[in-house]
Amino acid sequence: xxxxxxxxxxxxxxxxxxxxxxxxxxxxxxxxxxxxxxxxxxxxxxxxxxxxxxxxxxxxxxxxxxxxxxxxxxxxxxxxxxxxxxxxxxxxxxxxxxxxxxxxxxxxxxxxxxxxxxxxxxxxxxxx
Length: 128
What we know:
By secondary structure, the protein is of the alpha+beta class. It has helices at 49-53, 60-72, 79-96, 101-127, and strands at 11-14, 21-25, 30-36. It is built from 4 helices and 3 strands, in the order E-E-E-H-H-H-H.
């Protein structure tokens, strides 16, 4: 006769692969669900409206990339800088497991659209 092996109750537990994350254990196995281990203060969760208004808990590079991307919508010459900051932000987010991926991708996409537009305008101005 075998003795049942005690298992932990379902819940959020520290993720062994990252000290900054929690992982859901369903009572039998680990799931793919993860979340930051210490949501603190206003805007810490997506259900809080402040989360969408302020860049709390996001990569500083992603915030900068997002703003440069916004500027690139009207000042196309900053398009390459938006791409550069967006790519750097994506690398930073992957390394530090932080938030801001949407802002970084926004900067990359807008920068990729603004750079050729700026080149076309420059060629037309120089051709005179």
